[in-house]
Specification:
The protein has 76 residues and is an all-alpha fold. α1 packs across α2.
């Protein structure tokens, strides 16, 4: 269930990391906060044990050395 509220959190981040974070945000055209939110989501996903799904998505895409298309079910 998604909350209707946003919780603001105070976090101590070293200056070097802030500089790198700001550079990343500038390159991506996003805010520092957006980059931090994405990093938190990615960290939680990795720790949940479900990140293998995201890592494997599209892994076989473009392969032409496998029999059939994987959808028709007519492979032996």
């Amino acid at each position: 269930m998604r909350s209707l509220f946003v919780v603001r959190t105070l976090v101590d981040i070293p200056d070097d990391d802030i500089d790198r974070l700001d550079a990343l945000a500038a390159r991506s055209g996003r805010s520092r906060a957006a980059e931090i939110r994405e990093a938190v989501r990615a960290h939680l996903l990795r720790k949940s044990g479900q990140d293998w799904i995201a890592r494997g998505a599209g892994y076989w895409q473009g392969r032409n050395d496998l029999p059939g298309d994987g959808l028709s079910g007519d492979q032996a």
